[in-house]
Design goal:
This protein is an alpha+beta fold and 150 residues long. It is 31% helix and 29% strand. The protein starts with 12 loop residues before the first helix and ends with a strand.
């Protein structure tokens, strides 16, 4: 996308009623370096500053995970905080088989924001859901997620 995309630090569903898509963040150089250190093949795909696009139709999909959260208020807070979860995750993961990055934030539940990577390096929000601590531990044990400390 060559045109400028409006970026939001808080995701507001009302904004998506007006816009087909918005930016929920960008990959920082530190994140790119961190991920390339874990998997050198990512160097061909990931670029610092690449917009992460949130398409309007993803709201309906994310709503399918509402009941996985301890409360509606936690769900709404996490939805609003997607840009913050991407910017400052506790863990970052990668699913090579699915072409996606996962940004984990540990709150009263572990929340995961998944971003799809296209073969051309474009990034788009896919989903948000919760994990148990045992599931996160399994991601780490299998080498699919790493503690992110900058």
């Amino acid at each position: 996308m060559s045109k400028i995309i409006k970026q939001y630090s808080k995701l507001d569903k009302d904004v998506l009623r007006v816009n087909r898509f918005v930016s929920v963040g960008r990959l920082s150089q530190e994140m790119v370096d961190f991920l390339v250190d874990k998997d050198e093949t990512l160097a061909a795909w990931l670029r610092a500053g690449e917009e992460i696009v949130f398409w309007k139709d993803r709201i309906q999909h994310v709503e399918l995970h509402r009941d996985d959260f301890f409360s509606d208020s936690l769900f709404e807070q996490c939805l609003e905080d997607i840009p913050s979860i991407i910017k400052s995750p506790d863990y970052i993961g990668m699913r090579r088989d699915k072409g996606s990055l996962s940004f984990f934030r540990i709150l009263s539940q572990t929340v995961v924001v998944v971003v799809r990577i296209t073969s051309s390096g474009k990034l788009s929000f896919r989903t948000m859901y919760t994990l148990t601590s045992a599931q996160l531990d399994d991601y780490v044990r299998r080498g699919n997620a790493w503690k992110y400390e900058v």
